[in-house]
């Protein structure tokens, strides 16, 4: 399975605790009134009865000029909810992303000059909007808004420093002098007063939100018969300008929340999640009442990153509670993961090799998500079966796990596996297409699937075009595995040392330069995917071009040797990288030119001259020709890994990418042939979750919730190879924005 970097899912739905507008006066107030503590004239807000809660997507979406008036009405309601939500967020009365509750202090911490400048702009906007509300003709109302917004954009964008000075200058007025607003006379609708006092950002923003609620309310008054032509175009432009103004606020809040989450989840390591909840084994009385769900997670040093998206997904349900178990050395990381969720998440220390301690914890929960190394899953499953608790893992079903199938069925327990990205999402969409073809009387002639977790192209700025988000040792060891697959009806086998030689260019999109190579044994998927008719069955890995040849040279020189070396032991004498390289090459010289010549003469990697020069320059970039002292780790492999992990890690603000493609060769019922592809391309958000963490953690969380809900009710050792399991997961995945593009030709 590909592995996650620092935590990042598609933005979750924003929840709101109230749909009514916050107001300081009654609904019987005049259309325009001065409210207590309001800094400028404000209309009396009218709380709407609205159907849904807002999301950041509600603000991002726009009015479609060709949409129906009903669709427009729905969008107006969403806008109103968004304004009300933003107001509550500034008041510290709401959880952004269902996770982080921001306070006024968080907003105060924003750039003071920027906040001051924005306050003046919001004041002018609110003061200018209020009089326009008195306009009773819908066409005139929209035209006035358009002109005013154009004037506002001009005023705040052109030479902003000079123009904004006038908002904040302290007027020298006598105490008897009238301090009421003075219009500048520059604009038709924009009201630009001299302000003799410093504005309060929060009160200004609260009042603006209430005015915007009223502005959008008025869009629905006597406009149904005007919903065509120029009126629609004008409303579209007005909405777009409001959206642009308010989006600056949502971006700030998003960043505050992301920074908070990122800080909490920066170094999450090993964990175990456990949950209790309603399931099919509960008696009728239990089903009829709401019951708290408690979840427990156990994970190794890199799978802890997956725990973030999985935990967030599970805790969207208010009845769910989470316990995160981890080794003592990682308890602070577990606490960091639990902290944003308050009392609904708890971190504990847990040693899964301690049978008594493990039993004591698992007995308390309905479900366990095990993200520890696959060799330890049997310990968790054995304990779970004692207490008839369900288990979810993202790992392949090993022989050791498969051995629990009979006991799990007898105990009425679900042990769900292989539900991450690879394995996981790959199975879901392979089975989906294969079943669709078979149901129509067709055949699968070939199935080729490649998946890669990579840095985004703009961040692939090193000789390997790869970055390590977890232990590089696991990545490099996987490159020594042999491979086996079907091609044109014959079994092809590739020995580990030759794997990189077998890599070939693979086209998905013109903008990517991928190479692909086979991944372990693909032959069993003929049976797993129920495609005995297939002549070609191949599953493999994607990397950027240049990766295989670079790795091949490292292998041939001996850098991936994992046997212990005396000269690399921690207590050995200091040794430099050029000395290590000279030793491997049996060279008497440690000079860079001599070492380069030695590598060229021995034709390591069997690569072309130009490619070899690129690789040698990569060696220099890594410091292998340098006199820098190595971090001795006992073996060549581990010593190299220490350098790779330091030089080839993700930097601040860098994002990763996940690419998965299935390619099906299909024969239809009538004998005609076609090709179909299913492609997933996802980018991480460096401020929250990586693409890898999202595409592994979210499917895992979904599967856990479906088991708790009894939607996945089958007992025994399971994996996503059947529609009854897969279809509900696909449905929920697509709600999260994780979708594949299906094309055929």
UniProtKB/TrEMBL annotation:
GO terms classed as biological process: lysine biosynthetic process via aminoadipic acid
Positions of region (Disordered): 1-63
Molecular function GO terms recorded: saccharopine dehydrogenase activity
Low complexity composition-biased segments: 13-37
Keyword Oxidoreductase assigned: yes
Domain Saccharopine dehydrogenase-like C-terminal: 420-738
GO cellular component, one term: cytoplasm
SUPFAM superfamilies: Glyceraldehyde-3-phosphate dehydrogenase-like, C-terminal domain, NAD(P)-binding Rossmann-fold domains
Residues that span the membrane, as ranges: none
Pfam families, per the entry: Sacchrp_dh_C (PF16653), Sacchrp_dh_NADP (PF03435)
Compositional bias of kind Pro residues: 38-51
Domain called Saccharopine dehydrogenase NADP binding: residue spans: 304-416
Keyword set, alphabetical order: Amino-acid biosynthesis, Lysine biosynthesis, NADP, Oxidoreductase
Annotated protein name in UniProt: 749_t:CDS:1
């Amino acid at each position: 399975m590909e592995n996650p970097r620092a935590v990042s899912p598609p933005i979750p739905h924003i929840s709101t605790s109230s749909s009514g507008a916050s107001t300081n006066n009654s609904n019987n107030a005049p259309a325009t009134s001065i409210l207590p503590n309001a800094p400028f004239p404000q209309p009396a807000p009218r709380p709407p009865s609205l159907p849904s809660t807002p999301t950041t997507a509600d603000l991002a979406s726009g009015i479609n000029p060709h949409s129906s008036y009903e669709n427009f009405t729905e969008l107006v309601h969403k806008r109103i909810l968004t304004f009300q939500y933003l107001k509550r967020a500034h008041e510290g009365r709401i959880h952004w992303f269902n996770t982080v509750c921001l306070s006024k202090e968080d907003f105060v911490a924003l750039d003071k000059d920027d906040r001051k400048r924005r306050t003046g702009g919001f004041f002018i906007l609110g003061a200018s909007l209020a009089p326009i509300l008195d306009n009773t003709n819908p066409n005139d109302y929209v035209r006035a808004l358009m002109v005013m917004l154009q004037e506002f954009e001009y005023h705040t964008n052109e030479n902003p420093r000079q123009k904004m000075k006038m908002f904040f200058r302290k007027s020298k007025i006598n105490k008897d002098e009238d301090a009421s607003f003075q219009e500048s006379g520059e604009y038709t609708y924009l009201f630009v007063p001299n302000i003799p006092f410093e504005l309060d950002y929060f009160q200004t923003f609260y009042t603006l939100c209430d005015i915007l609620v009223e502005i959008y309310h008025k869009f629905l008054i006597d406009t149904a018969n005007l919903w065509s032509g120029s009126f629609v175009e004008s409303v579209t432009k007005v909405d777009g300008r409001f959206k642009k103004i308010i989006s600056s606020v949502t971006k700030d809040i998003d960043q505050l929340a992301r920074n908070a989450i990122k800080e909490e989840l920066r170094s999450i390591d090993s964990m175990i999640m456990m949950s209790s909840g309603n399931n099919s084994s509960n008696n009728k009385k239990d089903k009829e009442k709401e019951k708290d769900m408690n979840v427990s997670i156990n994970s190794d040093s890199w799978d802890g990153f997956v725990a973030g998206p999985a935990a967030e997904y599970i805790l969207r349900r208010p009845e769910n509670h989470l316990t995160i178990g981890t080794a003592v050395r990682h308890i602070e990381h577990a606490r960091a993961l639990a902290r944003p969720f308050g009392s609904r998440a708890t971190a504990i220390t847990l040693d899964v090799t301690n049978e008594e301690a493990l039993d004591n914890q698992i007995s308390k929960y309905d479900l366990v998500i095990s993200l520890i190394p696959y060799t330890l899953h049997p310990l968790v499953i054995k304990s779970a079966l004692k207490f008839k608790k369900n288990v979810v893992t993202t790992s392949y079903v090993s022989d050791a796990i498969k051995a629990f199938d009979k006991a799990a069925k007898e105990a009425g327990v679900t042990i769900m596996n292989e539900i991450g990205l690879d394995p996981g999402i790959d199975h879901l969409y392979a089975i989906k297409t294969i079943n669709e073809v078979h149901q129509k009387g067709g055949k699968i002639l070939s199935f080729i699937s490649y998946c890669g977790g990579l840095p985004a192209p703009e961040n692939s700025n090193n000789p390997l075009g790869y970055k390590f988000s977890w232990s590089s040792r696991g990545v490099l060891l996987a490159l020594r595995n042999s491979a086996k697959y079907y091609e044109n009806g014959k079994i092809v086998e590739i020995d580990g040392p030759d794997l990189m030689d077998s890599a070939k260019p693979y086209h998905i999109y013109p903008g990517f330069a991928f190479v692909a190579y086979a991944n372990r044994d693909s032959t069993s998927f003929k049976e797993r995917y129920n495609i005995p008719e297939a002549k070609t069955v191949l599953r493999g890995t994607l990397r950027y071009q240049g990766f295989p040849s670079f790795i091949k040279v490292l292998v041939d020189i001996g850098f991936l040797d994992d046997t212990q070396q005396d000269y690399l032991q921690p207590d050995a004498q200091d040794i430099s990288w050029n000395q290590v390289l000279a030793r491997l090459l049996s060279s008497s010289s440690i000079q860079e030119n001599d070492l380069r010549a030695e590598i060229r003469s021995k034709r390591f990697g069997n690569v072309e001259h130009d490619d070899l020069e690129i690789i040698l320059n990569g060696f220099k970039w890594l410091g292998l020709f340098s006199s820098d002292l190595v971090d001795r780790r006992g073996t060549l492999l581990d010593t190299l890994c220490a350098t790779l992990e330091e030089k080839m890690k993700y930097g601040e603000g860098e994002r990763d990418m996940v690419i998965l493609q299935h390619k099906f060769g299909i024969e239809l019922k009538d004998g005609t042939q076609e090709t179909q592809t299913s492609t997933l391309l996802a980018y991480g958000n460096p401020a929250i979750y990586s693409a890898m963490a999202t595409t592994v953690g979210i499917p895992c969380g979904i599967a856990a919730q479906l088991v708790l809900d009894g939607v996945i009710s089958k007992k025994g050792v399971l994996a996503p190879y059947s529609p009854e399991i897969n279809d509900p997961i696909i449905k929920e995945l697509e709600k999260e924005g994780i979708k594949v593009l299906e094309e055929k030709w």
